[in-house]
Specification:
The protein has 164 residues and is an all-alpha fold. Helices cover 91% and strands 0% of the residues.
């Protein structure tokens, strides 16, 4: 069964797009490495995860678009798309994402600090309220026990007087 030239050209172009997307996801991983100053082991795990995921995505792409037939031009097109993206954007995307993350960190830092403060206040008030509530319940229970004890004592004394 032969594959038409149109089908091969379409798969080739989609392979280039897939290579560009894989390069973009590599830049996301690179951003994480740069922003969080990961140690060697974490970088190794991140890179191995990226390459494993890229391999799975490429495999699924080949199954979906080319009926599982591995062709050299598909893998070449992915590499061309990856290199095109890297040459075109280099570290621009990584720098952009780093700036974006720093911006949101600065923006969210006071909000997070205030939410932590409010949470601590809420917990303090909740503890105080809970303690007060428990004290009221305990005092009420003690009062009920005293009344019940006096009733039982009165009934017991009344029974003793009847027997004598």
């Amino acid at each position: 069964m032969s594959i038409s030239i149109n089908n091969q050209a379409t798969v080739f172009l989609f392979s280039i797009v897939l290579g560009i997307l894989l390069a973009f996801f590599y830049d996301l991983a690179k951003t994480a490495r740069r922003m969080y100053l990961l140690n060697f082991e974490k970088i190794l795990v991140l890179d191995l995860s990226y390459f494993l995921l890229s391999g799975i995505i490429s495999f699924l792409f080949i199954i979906g678009f080319n009926n599982g037939k591995i062709r050299f031009y598909i893998l070449s097109a992915e590499i061309i798309g990856f290199l095109f993206y890297r040459l075109l954007f280099r570290d621009k995307i990584v720098n952009f994402f780093c700036k974006l993350i720093r911006f949101f960190k600065k923006l969210l830092k006071p909000i997070i600090a205030k939410s932590k403060l409010l949470t601590m206040r809420f917990i303090f008030v909740l503890r105080k309220t809970t303690n007060t509530f428990l004290k009221i319940i305990l005092d009420t229970f003690k009062s009920i026990l005293k009344v019940f004890s006096k009733i039982l004592q009165y009934l017991f004394n009344a029974m003793l007087q009847k027997q004598s």
